[in-house]
Design a protein that fits this description.
The chain has about 425 residues and is α+β, with helices and mostly antiparallel strands. It is about 35% helix and about 25% strand. It has 4 domains: about 60 residues, Winged helix-like DNA-binding domain superfamily/Winged helix DNA-binding domain (Arc Repressor Mutant, subunit A); about 120 residues, HprK N-terminal domain-like (Udp-n-acetylmuramoylalanyl-d-glutamate--2,6- Diaminopimelate Ligase, Chain: A, domain 1), CATH 3.40.1390; about 120 residues, Roll (CBS-domain), CATH 3.10.580.10; about 120 residues, Thiol Ester Dehydrase, Chain A, CATH 3.10.129.10. Pfam families: 4HBT, CBS, DRTGG. Keywords: CBS domain.
């Protein structure tokens, strides 16, 4: 029979997504103490079944798959920005695919606003209303409230409308940071990624006889097996040393090694590998958060996992990566011209193109142009930016590098940057070629 703790977890898991959960309600429904209910709800939060939100309470959410971990729920956004819910509370469990910053004309903003997105906007009631009608949630910055009609639409469509005291660009930076942190977690290999699951694992039950070990040994050529009780809990390990010379009619629980070391599915690969090496263990039983048997992890699994880790690209783009990936070359232009949109990651706290990103655009365009002249690498020796106007978020940049002098070892370029056909920046760059 399952423990009260497990019964509560099973009850929470069975609740519809979006349900509100309270300690008192769980305690009353399952006839358990409030302390037991509280501990089980906290465990459910660790597993990812529920999310606790200040001033809202605990709600049942959809457990996210690891490949979708970069998709935040609106409940998580609420916590990140320390906001309050003005309407659409029932939609807090939903995930958002992207967020849009409403720092542009209404018509342009609505082109980017679609279902399952989040519009970050100030005190612009019309924009808030149109976003909700398009199926997007709304995050109001600056601590503003909204009118009753907007709240009604949010409640009817179960789309959250959240208010925060932070400004638009601080909020965008906070959400980007949260997504980046989640991506780092995504790239950490855990036991769940590499272990051998239950259906492909050989194990013994505590009621089996020693003779069963010999049957499995003949079938698999393995010498060690986890022992599981009637509640699917790992209660022991049995190896060839435990059974040799023992009566084959003895119950396996009389000869097994009790209380074996286990790892949970969410344990990191590094932690599992350290345990196996330090303790000299070839095989570890894997259990879930309720300590139910899930499978095994072997040294071979760990080695494969480490090899996979070495092949993985590192997480997180630098500003140079973002600039390089965004820049496109227009072949139809008579002069070499590159284009790029100004995205939130490129802006400063005022919401305009940052000086450092402008520098990256200048150097990247120069490098691309000069590859047409030389095959060697390029090292920037000197860069002088002698004119720069503010460029707002969402603007389209046109970057024109003009070679003034291209020698065998050195080069000099003038780089002009336009936005909406207006000159917004000029720079003089001197660089040295280094032959490969």
């Amino acid at each position: 029979m399952a423990t009260k703790h497990e019964q509560i977890l099973a009850h929470i898991e069975s609740l519809p997504i979006g349900s509100k959960i309270s300690v008192r309600q769980v305690a009353k429904t399952l006839n358990v103490s409030e302390g037991t209910a509280y501990r089980a709800i906290k465990e459910a939060e660790n597993i990812g079944f529920v999310s606790t939100i200040e001033r809202v309470g605990t709600i049942r959410i959809e457990k996210k798959k690891k490949e979708n971990i970069e998709q935040l729920t609106f409940a998580e956004i609420l916590n990140i920005v320390d906001g309050q819910v003005l309407g659409g509370r029932e939609g807090l469990h939903k995930t958002l695919n992207k967020f849009v910053i409403g720092a542009m004309q209404l018509e342009a903003m609505m082109r980017y606003t679609e279902a399952d997105s989040l519009l970050i906007v100030g005190n612009r009631v019309k924009a808030q209303k149109l976003a909700l009608l398009a199926g997007a949630a709304v995050l109001i910055t600056g601590g503003f409230d909204t009118d009753e009609e907007v709240k009604r639409i949010a409640n009817e469509n179960k789309l959250p409308i959240i208010s925060t005291t932070y400004d638009t660009f601080t909020v965008a930076a906070m959400i980007n940071r949260a997504i980046y942190d989640q991506l780092i977690k995504k790239e950490i290999i855990i036991v769940d990624d590499i272990f051998t699951p239950l259906e492909r694992t050989f194990f013994l039950k505590s009621t089996d006889l020693v003779s069963k070990w010999y049957e499995l040994n003949e079938k698999t050529n393995h010498s060690r097996y986890p022992v599981v009780d009637e509640y699917e809990k790992v209660v022991g390990m049995v190896t060839s040393k435990d059974v040799i010379g023992k009566d084959q009619l003895l119950p396996i629980n009389k000869v097994m090694t009790r209380n074996p070391m286990t790892v949970q599915t969410n344990t990191s690969l590094a932690n599992a590998a350290h345990t196996m090496v330090w303790e000299g263990i070839e095989l570890l039983p894997v259990v879930d958060a309720q300590y139910r048997f899930q499978g095994v992890i072997t040294r071979q699994d760990v080695i494969k996992g480490l090899q996979q880790l070495q092949r993985q690209p590192q997480v997180g783009e630098t500003i140079e990566d973002i600039v390089s990936n965004q820049m496109e070359w227009d072949e139809e232009e008579t002069e070499t011209t590159y284009y790029s949109e100004v995205t939130p990651q490129m802006t400063n706290h005022l919401g305009t193109l940052s000086y450092g990103v402008f520098t990256s655009f200048v150097t990247e365009s120069a490098k691309r142009l000069l590859r047409q002249y030389k095959k060697g690498d390029l090292v920037v020796e000197n860069l002088s930016i002698y004119f720069m106007k503010p460029v707002q978020l969402g603007s389209m940049l046109k970057i024109k590098p003009n070679p003034l002098e291209v020698g065998r070892k050195f080069t000099k370029l003038d780089v002009e940057v336009y936005s909406d056909d207006a000159l917004v920046g000029k720079a003089l760059l001197m660089a040295q070629f280094i032959d490969r």
